[in-house]
Amino acid sequence: MQYGCMHGLMYADENFLTNGDLDRVLDWVPALEGMSLRYLPTFIRTTSPDDFMLHYLRRLIHNSKRASALLFNTFDALDVDIFRAVSSDFPPLYAIGPLQFLLEPIEATNKDTNSIGSSLWKEDPRCINWLDSFAPDSVVYVNFGSITVMTNDQYVEFAWGLANSNHPFLWITRPDLVTGDSAVLSPEFLEKTKNRGLIASWCNQEKVLAHPAIGGFLTHSGWNSTLESIYNGIPMICWPFFAEQQTNCWFSCKKWGIGMEIDANVERSVVEMQVRELMEGEKGKEMRRKAAEWKRLAQEAAAPPNGSSYCNLDHVIAKRERERMGSLSRDRKPHLVCIPYPAQGHINPMMQLAKILHSRNFHITFVHTEFNRNRLLRSAGPNALGGLPSFRFEAIPDGLAPTDANATQDIPSLCRSIELHCLRPFMDLLRRVNRSGVAPVSCIVSDVAMSFTLDAAKELGVPEVMLWTSSPCGFQGCALYDMLIQLDLVPFKDENFLINGDIDWVLDWVPAMEGMSLRYLPTFIRTTNPDDFMLHYVRRLIHNSRRASALLFNSFDALDRDIFQAVASDFPPLYAIGPLQFLLKPIEAEDEDAKSIGSSLWKEDPRCINWLDSFAPDSVVYVNFGSITVMTNDQYVEFAWGLANSNHPFLWITRPDLVTGDSTFLPPEFLEKTKNRGLIASWCNQEKVLAHPAIGGFLTHSGWNSTLESIYNGIPMICWPFFAEQQTNCWFSCKKWGIGMEIDANVERSVVEMQVRELMEGEKGKEMRRKAAEWKRLAQEAAAPPNGSSYCNLDHVITKVLHAWN
Questions:
Q1: Average pLDDT of 177-205?
Q2: Is cis: bond before 305, omega within 30 of 0?
Q3: Does residue 724 sit in the same domain as residue 641?
Q4: Do residues 230 and 789 lie in contact, with contact meaning Cβ atoms separated by under 8 Å?
């Protein structure tokens, strides 16, 4: 049986979310034992046998087998059991993360690498400065990623949960976070949180989660967010939205012990309670302890020369050729074409990986879509894509109608268009690049979600390594879609599956996911349509990933080891090579050119860091729901008042498109209440914000970048996942890693307040912070050379795959 790719399975009952179908436990799946179907990547949530996203993910998984290697932004200690479980059925899998850890020393020494950005949103510069004014481990960082959306009711519930928790919070609120009309936070909320809450539209999550003030992360459990939480040792509150976020959430909460899950139906009292528990409770303390241990393991994995992720990456590059390659001219360097899926949460880890590989003497061609190229130019200026002589930018059309919108494109439409329209222009680009006078393309490093590139690699006769930019648990969740269809669990048969118990079916037979329900699987399973596009799209992605030479994850072995063990036999070699932020850090520290290369699609608000500087360590709640999450104005207001009522300082990233409908509106009472303790910014450098000492917690959408940046910085989280695998990330953050608390999708200010308070001052928050600190330590160990697992995994990918062809 092919692990994780369960052919022919779909839900027969439209009520699968509520009738118990989703709560069937995957007790027979290695590394997912105890997880229910609810926590698999959500593309199984359909009753349509022809659901597009379900089969799309299946195709991705199948196509990944065509790659020469598969890269994962994780580290062995975290996901080794996942890799073991799936490795036999895939190309070589390399855990080469957390990419953030591997990138950190690179950007620390390479100005050029550090200058290359990938953020699709302009970052609010206030975040870090705001965090600086808070005590260590005192701030809840809230970010639901770049895709998560929520209703206004959910938004308001989160807001009031944060406010009522009385903990400082930094809340990243994209402009499109709230569905429907504009998000409105009442004057009472603004008044209540004015001195302890900052709402920003976007931030540098890596910096935010690395900030000492961050004590917890309310996240959507996206893999980047989850891994960044691990990378920083930050416990999480997980509110997964879709895809593998549910899987990430389950692993964070159940296996890694760094997360607490908030139900999709957000209630302010639960948010408040979980924030308080995250920040001050015994569970929070334990989560923080575990997060610190995971951070240590992540650091070890990414640390040269023996870290597992460092070595894995080195193996892919080819260690034996490194010195020789250092003296080669530009036209003789191995030439990698790196192409991310065109969303902020995918661009960032691919950019981090590209910078790391560039530091290993690879010529890089980084391919954006034309839409995102234009966004980058608007957010960072006309020189944003100037690149370096050996780090160049190109762009291809995505097939969608041109638009000047400064927001993430409609995901299903974008996925469909990419599959139909991107192969030919990509092939034309490769031919043009090969005629340009630089070294011919020697390997393609592609996002798994861009699996059309496998056909291009085959035609060109070069290997392809695929990067799964979400979490390993999200990958495993998506890989379960086939089996869920075969078991007739997906698509759901009952339209009321979210409330009738279907989605609460526990995957007690899935290794590494024991105890997770279908609710926490990547959300593309949440459909009753057997032909649901996204469900089958995700299935195709998973199937296609088997064509890769290796699969890379922005995570680290200590965090996701059981995931890798569970899926390794069914996929190419899996490598946890993260947190990439840790691996990149020393590179950018020495290379200013690398550091100057940016990726933010939003203009960052420069106030954030200065604002944080005025706060005590661990006192500020960072709130950021990522680049895609949207919410209703009611949800927005509930979050706002939850933050205000928590009486904790907060930095809230509020993208212009975070709230659906008209522009967001926060009442004067809220602004008055929070004027001295809350900063609302449109975007920020999240890496800097999370790294700021003032950040004590993270209210997040549980996107994987946000989660990982929380881990990377040892920041506990409050999780409000939006979609995709954010629910999975949330579950893992809350149930396995012990660094998160989940807020229900139906946001209630009292819950937000309660959870912010718990995160920032409760016993659970303290334990989450302790676990987050431990995960941070593990993440640092994974990324640390020479023996860190992620460091070695990346080294291995370099040696065995990237240099092997050359």
A1: 87
A2: yes
A3: yes
A4: no
pLDDT at 98 over 90: no
Q: For residue 261, what are the domain limits? A: 121-298+603-782
**DSSP strands (E only) in 144-250:** 168-172, 197-204, 214-219, 236-238
pLDDT (tens digit per residue) in 5-21: 333 345 556 776 678 88
pLDDT in tens, 439-477: 899 999 999 999 999 999 999 999 999 999 999 999 999
Total domain count for the chain? Answer: 2
Predicted confidence band at 590 (pLDDT cuts at 50, 70, 90)?
A: confident
**pLDDT 10s digits, 326-348:** 444 445 689 999 999 999 889 99
Distance CA 631, CA 456 (A): 38
CA distance 47 to 531: 8
Same-domain check for residues 130 and 216: yes
Q: How far apart are CA 72 and CA 553, in angstroms?
A: 1
138 occurs within a structural domain = yes
Place of tokens 């090579």: 577
| pLDDT the model gives residue 68 | 85
Closest of 352, 344, 380 to residue 587, by C-alpha: 352
pLDDT at residue 144 is higher than 60? yes
State which amino acid sits at residue 391.
Answer: F
779 touches 714 (CB < 8 A): no
E strands, 175-230, are 197-204, 214-219
pLDDT band (50, 70, 90) for residue 305? low
* Number of Cα atoms under 13 Å in the Cβ half of residue 165: 65
Instruction: Look up residue 253 and give its DSSP letter.
Output: I
Same domain for 146 and 283? yes
Mean pLDDT of 772-776: 92
Asked if the model's pLDDT at residue 182 lies above 70, the reply is no
pLDDT of 645 reads 95
pLDDT of residue 805: 56
Q: Which residue has the tokens 């961050």?
A: 214
- 125 shares a domain with 99: no
Cα distances (Å, whole numbers) of residue 178 to 140, 203, 630, 658: 20, 18, 4, 5
**Residue 405 confidence class, pLDDT cut points 50, 70, 90:** confident
**Contacts of 336 by beta carbon, 8 Å cutoff, 6+ apart:** 354, 357, 362, 363, 364, 365, 441, 442, 443, 444, 445, 802
Q: Which CA distances in Å does 209 have to 63, 74, 212, 627?
A: 34, 17, 8, 16
pLDDT at 131: 92
Tell me the three-class secondary structure of 64-83, residue by residue. HHHCCEEEEECEHHHHHHHH
Across the range 743-762, mean pLDDT stands at 93
The verdict on pTM exceeding 0.90 is no
Instruction: Using alpha carbons, list the distances in angstroms from residue 500 to 59, 68, 426, 496, 519.
Output: 30, 44, 45, 6, 12
Distance CA 719, CA 50 (A): 31
Cα(301)–Cα(280) distance, integer angstroms: 30
Please state the length of the chain: 806
**Residue 159 neighbours by CB under 8 Å, 6+ apart:** 171, 185, 189, 268, 635, 636, 637, 638, 639, 640, 641, 642, 643, 644, 747, 749, 752
CB atoms within 10 A of CB 101: 51
Nearest CA to 140 among 637, 762, 663?
762
CATH code, domain with 242: 3.40.50.2000
User: Which residues are annotated as catalytic?
Assistant: 346, 447
Residue 28: its H or E element? strand 26-28
Pairing status of strand 464-468 against strand 550-553:
parallel
